[in-house]
Amino acid sequence: MSKSKKAALYSTVFMGLGQLYNKDWIKGIFFMLIEIITLINIFNGTVAHSIWGVITLGETRGVKGDHSINLMIDGIITLMLLAFVVIIFVFNIKDAKKARENIENGKMAKKPIEYLKFIRNRYFAHILLMPSIVLIIFFTLLPILFTFLIAFTNYSIPYHIPPGNLVDWVGFKNFIKLFKMEEWAGTIWTVGLWTIIWAIITTVLNYFAGLGLALLTNAKGVKLKKVWRTLFILPYAIPAFISLLIFRLVFMGPGPVNSTLLNIGVISEKIPFLSDHTLAKVMVILVYCWTGAPYWMALMSGTLTNIDKSLYEAAEIDGASKWQQFYKITVPMVLFQTAPLLIMTFAHNFNNFGMIYLLTTGDPVNANLKYAGSTDILISWIYKMTLEKRQFGMAAAVTILIFVFVASMAIYSFRKTKSFKEEDMIQ
Amino acid sequence: MMKKKITLKNVIKYTLIYSLLILISFVILSPVVWIIGSSFNPGSSVFSSTLIPKNPTIQHYIDLFTETEYPLWFLNTLKVATMNMIVSVIITTLTAYAFSRFRFRGRKQGMMTILVLQMFPSILAMTAMYVLLTKLHLINTHIGLVIVYATGQIPFNTWLVKGYLDAIPRSLDEAAKIDGASNITILTKIIMPLSKPILVFVALQNFVGPWFDFIFPQLVLRGADKKTLAMGLFNWIKDRQANQFTLFAAGAILVAIPITLLYAYFQKHIVEGLSAGATKG
C-alpha cells in the first residue's frame, strides 16, 4: 500500500490521523477536534434526540411537554451540521492523501502560516462570500426549508399550537384540502385568479401610463418640460408607505372625496370606493398606477432622449407621418429597451404585499372566501393566515405553490437574459 | 427656425396637451395638498378636516414631540436604518466582488441560487424567522431586525452591483496586480471608487427601507421602547375611524420630507441605479 493511500486510510478511520501521520500537527489536531465534538454529540444522544424530534415532533403533551416546532428547528439545524461534517470528512481524506503525495514527491509540506496564506489566495472568493453564505443559510434557506416542512404538518390553532399541544406530520393532507375541500378550493382559485389578473393589469397599465407620461412631457413644443417632469416624478419620491395610507384615508367612506362630491351635489350617496367588492379592486389598480407609473416615466424619458434623431429625419424624408413615426420608431425602440424588465415587474407585482395591505388590508370581507377579503392577493392571504388566523400549515402549503410558480418563471426568464449567457464575454 | 403657425389644428393639439398635463398634475398633487392641509387642521378626525384649514394650527407638530413617542421612534428607526445601510453595503460589495471578479467552483450554482431566492419574498418565511430569532435571543432587538433586512437585500442588490462591476474593465485590476496590489487593495482603491454610483444607490435603498417597513418590526420587535416609525404611524390610523388622523398627517410629513429630499439630492445615482438594473439585471 502506498504511503499516500495509508494517509487517506488513517484519516478515514479517524479525522486528522492522516495529517498527524504527515506530521502536519495543527491541521491534524483541528480535524480531530471536529471529529471528537461530533462523536461526543452522537454518543451523548443529542443527535439521536434531534432526529427523533424531527420524526415524531414530540410525544408528550402539556406545557412542560415537547415543543414540536423547536424540535423541528433543532432537527433541521442538526441535519445541516451533520451534512457539513460529512463535507469536512471527505475533504480531510483528500487533504491527507494529497499532502502525503507531495511529501513523497519531495515537496515539503506547507508550514501552517504558509498554508493560511495559500488558503487566503486560493479561496479568497469563498472568504469574501462567507458573511453572505452564513446569513443566507440561516435566515433565508433555513426558513424556506422550515416552511416546506410546515406545509406537511397540521400546525394551526386551535388544537395544534405548541407549547401545550403537539404538531403532527400529515403528509399531503394540506394540499389535498386546498384543492378538494370546497371552501379552500373556492378560495385558492378565486384569490389565485385575482392575483394573476392583478399582476397582469398593473404591470401593463403602469408600463403604458409611464410611456404616456414620458411622451407627454417630451412632446414637441411643450413649455416648462422640467417642471412637469419633476411634478410627475413626485409620486415616486414620496414613500409608498405614506402615499398608500393617504389614499386609504382619501377614499374612506367619510373621506374627503366623498364629502366633497356630496357637498357640490354631484352624488347623493357616498360611493363605497373601498368597501364594494368590485370597486375596491378597481381602486387598488388605479392607486397603484398613481404610485407606479412615474418609475416607468423616469426610465423611459431617458430612453426617449437617447433615440437616434437621424431615424426620424430619414422617416420624414420617406414621407412618414408623425403617427407612423410614433408607432414605427418610438414605441418599438422604447419597448425593446425596457421590455426585459416587464417579467421582473410582473413577478414583483404578483407578490406586492404592501400595495394591497396598506390600501385595503385585503378588505372588503368576503363571506365566500376562507380567511381572505375581496382584494386579497395570495401573499396577503398567506400573511393573514399566518399572523392573524394562525393556520401555519395551510399558509405554508400555499407558500410552496407560489414559490414554485414564481421561481420557475424567474429561472426561465433569466436563462434567456443576455447578462447570464454572455457575462464571460465582457472580460 | 421655422415660425410656428397658429392653425386650428395646433390650437386643438396644445389645448389637449396642456389640459392633460394640468389634469394629471391635479391628480398627483391633490392628495399631497390634502395631507399637508390636514396636518394643520385642528381636531383629530378625517371628518372635520378640510383641504385648506379654516383655523390653521401647528399644535399637532408640537404634540408629536411632547405628547407622543414619536421622537423615540424616530431615533430607533435612525439607528436601525444606519446599521442596516452599513452592514448591507459591506456584505453586498464583498459578495458582488467575489462573483464578478473570481472564477471558483460553485459560482454559477451560487448565482442561480441567489436568483431563485430573490423571487422568494421574505414575508413568506415569517414563522420560521420568528422561531429562529427567538432561539438566537435576537427577538425584540434592533440587531435582529437589521439581520433580517440585511439578509433580505443580499440577492437583489448583489445581482445589481455585480452587473455594474462586470462593466468595469478587468485590465485595471490586472495592472494593479502587476504593481503588487492585493485583492483587498484592488477592491477598496479601484473597484469601490469606480462603482460609487451603484453603491450610493444600494446605501440609499437600505437606509430608506426601514423607515417605511411595518411588517418586520411587527414580527421582531415587541417592546414599546423598541418601536420604529412606520409601526407607530400605521397604528395611528389602522382602525376604521382613523382616530389619530391629524397626528399621523403631521408625523408622515415630517418623515417624508427628508426622505424625499434625499431622493432629490441623489437623483442622478438613482436614475443610474435604475437603468443599471434595467439593462444588466
Describe this protein's structure.
- The complex is a heterodimer of chains A (427) and B (281).
- Chain A is mostly helical.
- Chain A has 2 domains: 3-175, no CATH class; 178-426, Orthogonal Bundle (MetI-like fold).
- Chain A has helices at 3-13, 17-21, 25-43, 46-56, 68-104, 112-122, 124-150, 173-180, 182-218, 225-237, 240-250, 256-263, 277-306, 309-317, 322-338, 340-350, 353-360, 378-388, 392-416, 418-421, 423-426.
- In chain A, helix 16 packs antiparallel against helix 19.
- The model of chain A is unreliable at 422-427 (pLDDT under 50).
- Chain B has 281 residues and is an all-alpha fold.
- Chain B folds into 2 domains: 8-62, no CATH class; 68-280, MetI-like fold, CATH 1.10.3720.10.
- Chain B has helices spanning 8-39, 59-66, 70-101, 107-118, 126-135, 142-166, 170-178, 183-194, 196-208, 215-220, 229-237, 245-265, 267-280.
- Chain B is globular and about 70 Å long.
- The mean pLDDT of chain B is 84.
- The interface between A and B is large, with 90 and 92 residues.
Look at the structure and give the mean pLDDT of chain A. 84
Which blocks of ≥5 consecutive residues of chain A have pLDDT under 50? 422-427
Helix content of chain A: over 70%
Count of beta strands of chain A? 0
Run of helices and strands of chain A:
HHHHHHHHHHHHHHHHHHHHH
Here the CATH topology of the largest domain in chain B equals: MetI-like fold
CATH superfamily label of the largest domain in chain B: MetI-like
Count of distinct strands of chain B: 0
Count of domains of chain B: 2
Residues in β-strands, percent of chain B? under 5%
The structure class of chain B reads mainly alpha
Q: Using only CA atoms, what is the Rg of chain A?
A: 31 Å
Fold blueprint:
The complex is a heterodimer of chains A (427) and B (281).
Chain A: H1 3-13, H2 17-21, H3 25-43, H4 46-56, H5 68-104, H6 112-122, H7 124-150, H8 173-180, H9 182-218, H10 225-237, H11 240-250, H12 256-263, H13 277-306, H14 309-317, H15 322-338, H16 340-350, H17 353-360, H18 378-388, H19 392-416, H20 418-421, H21 423-426
Helix pairs in contact in A: 1-5, 3-5, 4-5, 7-19, 8-9, 9-10, 9-13, 9-16, 10-13, 11-17, 13-15, 16-19, 18-19
Chain B: H1 8-39, H2 59-66, H3 70-101, H4 107-118, H5 126-135, H6 142-166, H7 170-178, H8 183-194, H9 196-208, H10 215-220, H11 229-237, H12 245-265, H13 267-280
Helix pairs in contact in B: 1-12, 2-12, 3-6, 3-9, 4-6, 6-9, 7-8, 9-13, 11-12
